[in-house]
Amino acid sequence: MPESSSYINQDQAVVYLLQRTNRREADGPERAAATELAQEMKGLLPALEQATAYIRTTQSEFRSFVVDYRQRLLGLRGAYGNEGAEMIVAALALSLDAVYRDTRAAGDLLHVLVFLNPNRVPEEWAVLGASKIGDDFAAAFSEGAALEPILGLLAGHSLIRRDLKQRTYDVDLFTRSIIQNDFDESTRRNYMIRAIFATDAAFAAGHEDPATLERLLPQALHCAELIATGQFSFLNAARLLHDTAHTLYLKEEYTESESLYLRALAMAEQLLGPNHTHIATILNAIAVLYDVQRRCEEAEAMYLRALEIYETSCDPDDPQIAIALSNLAEFCASHRRYEEAQALKGRALAIYERSLGPDHPTTIFMRESIQYCRPNPA
Question: What is the mean pLDDT of the chain?
């Protein structure tokens, strides 16, 4: 139920409608229709705001809006339990219809947005994740469409609120609730999956830019919650959990990072089996996390398991084995186990010499690094 502060009196409502639609000088039928609409909406500000957004953006007349609004309101009687909510929804429904008529790409975007964190969605999220948001949205971008007209349309209808300086936008909470509740369970899950895929694509595309990852992080964390609540299990979800965990690790938020790493590991093991090389990649990341927390036994166990997977799954001269040997060697050296570190690096060097050649830069670097695996480097 809207609060009492959400209402204004009849005269104020008429002025509000005319001012917000830039029709202060309207007279005759238009002013009469604005007065009629103010009466219909009983001065409820959220409903009046939604009405003016529609009228201003579509350049409709008050008279035509009143007719359409009444029809919508009639179909909603009793659906929401109170008159105020039904008035807001009726006006909102007309805006949604207008958006869907104007461009299907905007509809695609809005349907996915309502399953994201509604606050401060960065504009680059939609650009980087465009191919996963929906067919119409992806097609629009492949044909060179820009994001600005789509966001402008949604903002014009008060479905989102933009911060042009920060290049972010908030999704209107009432819009979010209405659209989510309007979907059946299958459709709801479909758009949740799209939100996860799009956020994964955006996160992967922005992985070399820490500032972009920082802006995308709230959406990634929200999608981690979606993955849990929806009990989703697919490789892009596992990758998003892993990449989010890594970003948190870089921010030294180790507890949250570990939780997401372990979820990524469990999901990847379920999907790929326990001996896939992707599992080894996650294990190595967890080992680094444990090592920085001085959880040495747990870290070493992860390094060893990662090495075992590579040795089991790869060709004996695969450079991935050399990398795993080098990682374990660095761990040993950092804990003053120099003889073990030298032996491990020697094995890695032999693999690089056979696979890359003795004069490859990686081989040379490994050869030179062996001398530093001692208490006092020469």
Answer: 92
